[in-house]
From TrEMBL, chain A:
InterPro entries (alphabetical): MetI-like, MetI-like_sf
Protein species of origin: Paramesorhizobium deserti
UniProt KW keywords: Cell membrane, Membrane, Transmembrane, Transmembrane helix, Transport
Entry membrane topology: Multi-pass membrane protein
Family according to the record: Belongs to the binding-protein-dependent transport system permease family. CysTW subfamily.
Protein name: Polyamine ABC transporter permease
Residues spanning the membrane: 61-84, 96-116, 144-166, 187-216, 243-263
Residue ranges constituting the ABC transmembrane type-1 domain according to the UniProt record: 58-264
GO terms for biological process, alphabetical: transmembrane transport
UniProtKB/TrEMBL annotation, chain B:
Domain of life: Bacteria
Record membrane topology: Multi-pass membrane protein
Gene Ontology terms describing biological process: transmembrane transport
Cellular component per GO, a single term: plasma membrane
Keyword tags: Cell inner membrane, Cell membrane, Membrane, Transmembrane, Transmembrane helix, Transport
Domain ABC transmembrane type-1: 64-258
Name listed for the protein in its UniProt record: Polyamine ABC transporter permease
Organism listed in the record: Paramesorhizobium deserti
Localization (cell): Cell inner membrane; Cell membrane
Membership in a protein family: Belongs to the binding-protein-dependent transport system permease family.
Transmembrane stretches, start-end: 64-92, 99-122, 142-162, 183-204, 239-261
Length: 275, 270
């Protein structure tokens, strides 16, 4: 006797099965690689923690991610404020400036930054033509380029949770503050900003987590000189085939992010992840 | 309405951010008209040679067609699965909804490089069994893209489902409609704009996907981003600027259409 599958099962199962088979199970395969390649044991994990090169890449990654997170949050706060509280025209302009870069390929955006920052790029060409500098400034193919490119990539992701927190502020609270004689800047700093802390923390988490695992922008704008952890995984796999170490770093990254998100899960709402 | 509009300080800051966001997109335009063979600003003369190269070199057209095919198949899979899943969550509100949603969002949260390794593992395993679906095949790439873009489709569809009035479904149930009728003739028509948006945006995401594609393709399935990556890594080819300008125009058009449609249907989705 076979029970008739319930509607709940019929609707939920296809996606869960698809992701289970095409994502969760293969991920376990990667975990197994980390313990079996090139030889069984926890050698790769020991290597991750003892290798000074890997350690310096981890430290650089943390440093870049923190700088990028702070920069993205500040930038996102300003434009989100106009997107939420501006006049109709200001809101539309802000929305355009947030969404168009968001939906444009990461490659195109990284290339755009190369066109601006590289030695023969827009900025250096103009500065040299104006006689301000003699030789080109090193703006790309280094850590500065990576920070600029990643901040640009991540601002929209920071805008969504911040804007959502700003939208849910009760207008009457601000009116009450004004009614009691608070100045504009006092209302902003002591009433408005504290009411958006939740959104700020959510944004910081999303940006930090995305920045940690990102490798396309650093690979192009860092020019191999400012390697971050995700790019290290890529290099270990494609240049010095070392699947075990790549897998071990991947597992460590996932565990770190899982712990971070578990600690902070009340600040994340799925709808904040996209525009 | 709003008690306080943005003051001058925040407007100046926001303008600076807006310029920062648009700057790299604008910068590719002059580079695409450079007469030189390397990445440079045109000085004096402009040239269309890099646009011509896009037409004359068949690799570009081939990769565009391949990316279109992959995008259509993967966004179809993602939208279909995400719609069914969203309906299941919305209609039954299962006990572990948050956990289930968290699980299907994993490919979005897990670092792209880890997803890429995971999907490489999957593709090489599939290649052991057949020649059609697996490493460096277009269906393999489409499947991998479907994994990566489904979370976006799920979020978009859930957002539009949460705006549907539950009483519509209750009424249908009260009138004796069965599951299929409720799901596909009552609820789906109410979120059709959300579904269309999910399909469109997941297509765009597949069309642009590079992180995973790098790991699971080598010489046969060269998608457009993969071809661009090859031109970006070694010697920067200004043809990338020309294709970038075209891509920016297409994306801006798609978003423009979406914004217009949204404005005309203010009550449905987002």
């Amino acid at each position: 006797m076979i029970a008739k599958p319930s509607g709940k099962f019929l609707l939920l199962a296809p996606l869960l099965l698809f992701l289970g088979l095409a994502y969760a199970v293969p991920f376990l395969g990667v975990v197994r690689w980390s313990f079996t390649l090139p030889e069984p044991g926890i050698g790769q994990y020991k290597a991750v923690f003892s290798d000074p090169l890997v350690r310096s890449v981890f430290l650089r990654t943390l440093r870049i991610c923190l700088i990028v997170t702070v920069a993205s949050l500040l930038a996102a706060y300003a434009i989100a404020y106009v997107w939420v509280r501006g006049t109709r025209t200001q809101r539309m302009l802000a929305e355009f400036c947030i969404l168009v870069p968001f939906w444009i390929s990461v490659l195109t955006r990284a290339f755009g930054w190369l066109a601006l920052l590289s030695n023969r790029g827009l900025i250096n060409t103009w500065l040299q033509a104006a006689g301000i500098i003699g030789s080109p400034l090193a703006l790309a193919r280094n850590e500065l380029g990576v920070i600029i490119g990643m901040t640009h990539f991540l601002i929209p992701f920071a805008v969504f949770p911040i804007a959502s927190a700003m939208r849910s502020i009760d207008e009457r609270v601000l009116l009450a503050a004004r009614g009691m004689g608070a100045s504009r800047s006092r209302i902003f700093w002591t009433v408005f900003v504290p009411l958006t802390y939740g959104g700020l923390i959510g944004a910081a988490l999303i940006v930090f987590v995305f920045a940690l695992g990102f490798f396309v922008t650093p690979a192009i704008l860092g020019g191999g000189r400012s390697v971050m952890v995700a790019e290290l995984v890529y290099l270990r796999i494609f240049q010095s085939p070392d699947w075990g170490l790549g897998a071990a770093i991947s597992v460590i990254l996932v565990l770190f992010i899982a712990a971070l998100l578990a600690l902070m899960r009340r600040f994340i709402k799925p709808a904040h992840l996209i525009g | 309405m709003r008690s306080s509009r943005p003051g001058p300080v925040i407007l100046i800051l926001a303008t600076a951010v807006a310029l920062f966001l648009l700057m790299p997109l604008v910068a590719v335009v002059p580079v695409s008209f450079t007469p030189a063979r390397f990445l440079s600003m045109p000085t004096g003369t402009l040239s269309l040679r890099h646009y011509q190269a896009l037409i004359e070199n068949p690799a570009w057209a081939e990769s565009i067609l391949l990316s279109l095919r992959i995008g259509i198949l993967s966004s179809f899979i993602a939208t279909l699965l995400a719609t069914l899943f969203g309906l299941g969550i919305w209609m039954y509100q299962p006990r572990f909804s948050a956990l289930l949603i968290g699980f299907v969002l994993l490919p979005l949260i897990v670092p792209p490089v880890v997803s890429a390794m995971t999907l490489y593992f999957l593709m090489t395993a599939l290649s052991a069994f057949n020649n059609w679906i697996g490493y460096d095949t277009w269906i393999g790439v489409a499947l991998a893209h479907a994994v990566m873009i489904t979370p976006f489709a799920v979020v978009l569809i859930l957002v539009s489902l949460y705006q549907v009035d539950r009483r519509i479904d209750l009424a249908a149930r009260g009138l004796g409609a069965n599951l299929a009728t409720r799901a596909f003739r009552v609820i789906v028509p109410n979120i059709r704009f959300g579904i269309a948006t999910a399909a469109l945006l997941s297509f765009v995401l597949s069309w642009e996907e590079i992180g995973v594609t790098l790991f699971i393709t080598s010489i046969n399935a060269i998608t457009l981003p993969r071809l661009m990556w090859m031109g970006l890594r070694d010697n920067i080819d200004p043809a990338i600027a020309a294709i970038s300008v075209l891509l920016i125009i297409v994306t801006a058009l798609i978003l423009g259409v979406r914004m217009i449609v949204e404005r005309r249907r203010p009550n449905d989705a987002q």
